[in-house]
Design goal:
194 residues, mainly alpha, 82% helix, 0% strand, globular
């Protein structure tokens, strides 16, 4: 219970932007989880993932990469690759590679994550839409705008149907499309989506 509290407190500081305090609490939670449930447990993998996300956002990319790889090795051993947690850690690692400019590796992992989400949830689920959105953003960064547009439109459609127009993820889809159309010079479309 104390370990859960440490993780929650670390998350609170993370969302407040106090990364130094977040790291302290996440590391406490990691130590407690390792001692209580061991390293081959989903709860341990979850704190590792949070720590990796934190390090990515702190610019400590090498640490984040190692922790993501460890997290996915644990998830694969416990639940296998056909698992939502495994797919999302792949996506997180892909996002890290995207930030590092390692686009080929990012694309490969985003595609693998997308395929996992499709097999688990189907093509009309918001988790699948989130994976589409991530891949779309990668293609946008690489200036493959036609590919990015197709995926972003599909993600928007799924989110509209499954989450509704009042959901923040739907708003994210609109914003992604607006940015894309602005980069394409289609300012009227961009304005509508904004």
């Amino acid at each position: 219970a104390y370990g859960n509290g440490c993780m929650s407190r670390g998350s609170l500081f993370y969302f407040m932007g106090d990364f130094a305090s977040s790291e302290i609490w996440y590391l406490k939670a990691k130590t407690i989880r390792e001692a209580t449930v061991g390293k081959e447990h989903t709860d341990y993998a979850k704190i590792l993932n949070n720590l990796a996300v934190l390090y990515k956002n702190m610019g400590r990319f090498e640490q984040a990469e190692l922790i993501y790889l460890e997290t996915n090795a644990i998830n694969e051993k416990i639940t296998g690759k056909e698992n939502n947690d495994y797919g999302w850690v792949l996506s997180n690692l892909a996002n890290l590679y995207q930030k590092m400019g390692r686009f080929d590796q990012a694309e490969q992992l985003f595609l693998e994550s997308l395929n996992i989400m499709e097999r688990i949830w189907g093509r009309r689920h918001h988790e699948y839409a989130a994976s589409l959105s991530n891949l779309s953003l990668l293609y946008h960064d690489q200036w493959q705008l036609a590919k990015a547009e197709l995926l972003a439109l599909e993600a928007k459609s799924i989110r509209e149907q499954t989450l509704g127009k009042e959901d923040p993820d739907y708003a994210e889809s609109l914003n992604n499309l607006a940015n894309l159309y602005a980069d394409l010079g289609q300012y009227d479309k961009a304005e509508l989506y904004y």
